[in-house]
From TrEMBL:
Pfam families xrefs: TctC
Superkingdom, taxonomy of origin: Bacteria
Organism (species): Mycolicibacterium iranicum (Mycobacterium iranicum)
InterPro entries: BUG, Bug_dom1
Protein name per Swiss-Prot or TrEMBL: ABC transporter substrate-binding protein
SUPFAM superfamilies reported for this sequence: Periplasmic binding protein-like II (SSF53850)
Family (UniProt): Belongs to the UPF0065 (bug) family.
Length: 351
């Protein structure tokens, strides 16, 4: 099936907007770092820490199973935050709450008292809200945004022993099988856009609980290919269990630290410019709606200080995880742009 003219136009608009938003976010990050180096508050304009300080453990919700990319980043931030930013005796307790709708709903409905935060997948949150408003018991734009830690472009992978050596091999095959997590997730959305853009004859099985289950299914032979984040499956690529065939991000999104990704052809180089960077995963740190200003100030400053700290940079290096820290203002701007784009893109891909 070939991608329709309407969807091509939408993907093209998504690409141009995402490039613009990355430039805006990068400029904001440089400015914020400059302010930080001068001793200024990174996100609020108020005195550091505000007038509120936590006195008990902070609950952190991850809407996926343990071991996946969102879980790894959440635990990394939580660990460094607890060690370097929070008062003595205050811990961050990470709770995995799959499936995705249940986890996001829990994040949204927790008390806005400063003791509840979470890591929110975008554009998955808004995609689920659009696709199934009866199930999605949240309003994405009402979350209290604290910042974002990473921007994750997608890759088409096959098993190491797969007969498919190039993306053209996949395009020539009929009856392909793919596997992903919940319908409406960022990975599922990226996979659907890829299938349409490349004209693949493929059926998708939804419902895997996380990246570990998805990649296990690929290696086991339950799927011919998967579409997943560039930073999520690094260990499986480096161990030789899976191979990347096509990078769906832009050159700006190709992490230098991932040496295995350096020579993987891009969608643009294969003639699919509209697919390049069209769906990019954003890992947002959020709290429930209506968090009081003084509490939101503390959380935003603490999250940003954690993500820009030497300790977190060292964690990222050891974990082999790229980081693109944004303060709450830059992260909110990118989130709002994704909401606007997905309100058009998601219905077009569902038709």
């Amino acid at each position: 099936m070939n991608i329709t003219k309407t969807t091509k136009t939408i993907l093209s608009e998504r690409l141009h907007r995402s490039r613009r938003m990355r430039k805006v976010a990068a400029a904001g990050l440089v400015a914020a770092l400059a302010l930080t180096s001068c001793g200024s508050n990174s996100g609020s304009g108020e005195s550091a820490g505000g007038a509120w300080t936590p006195e008990k453990d902070i609950n952190w919700i991850v809407p996926y199973s343990a071991g996946g990319g969102f879980d790894v980043y959440a635990r990394g931030i939580a660990e460094v935050m607890q060690q370097t930013q929070l008062p003595d005796g205050v811990n961050v307790v990470v709770r995995n709450m799959p499936p995705l709708p249940q986890g996001i709903t829990a994040m949204f409905n927790e008390k806005p008292d400063g003791y509840n935060v979470g890591i929110l997948p975008m554009p998955a949150a808004i995609a689920q809200q659009i696709q199934d408003p009866d199930l999605a018991k949240w309003k994405t734009n009402e979350f209290t945004v604290l910042g974002s830690v990473d921007e994750n472009a997608y890759v088409v992978y096959v098993a190491a022993d797969s007969p498919f050596q190039t993306i053209e091999d996949l395009q020539a095959k009929k009856g392909l099988r793919s596997l992903t997590v919940e319908e409406g997730s960022s990975s599922a959305l990226a996979g659907l856009a890829t299938i349409e853009a490349l004209g693949l004859d493929a059926n998708v099985t939804y419902g895997a609980e996380g990246s570990a289950e998805v990649v296990t299914g690929l290696i086991r032979g339950d799927a011919d290919f998967i579409t997943y984040g560039s930073t999520d499956l690094t260990g499986f690529v480096e161990s030789g269990d899976i191979r990347p065939l096509l990078f769906l991000g832009t050159e700006e999104q190709r992490p230098e630290s991932l040496t295995w990704l350096a020579n993987v052809p891009t969608a643009e180089s294969k003639g699919f410019e509209d697919l390049s960077g069209a769906v990019t995963e954003l890992r947002l740190i959020v709290a429930p709606p209506n968090v009081p200003d003084n509490i939101a100030t503390y959380l935003r400053d603490t999250v940003y200080a954690t993500m820009t700290s030497p300790e977190f940079a060292e964690w990222a290096k050891k974990a082999d995880r790229p980081i693109i820290p944004r303060d709450w203002q830059a992260a909110t701007e990118v989130m709002n742009s994704q909401i606007e784009q997905m309100e058009v893109l998601v219905p077009s891909l569902s038709n």
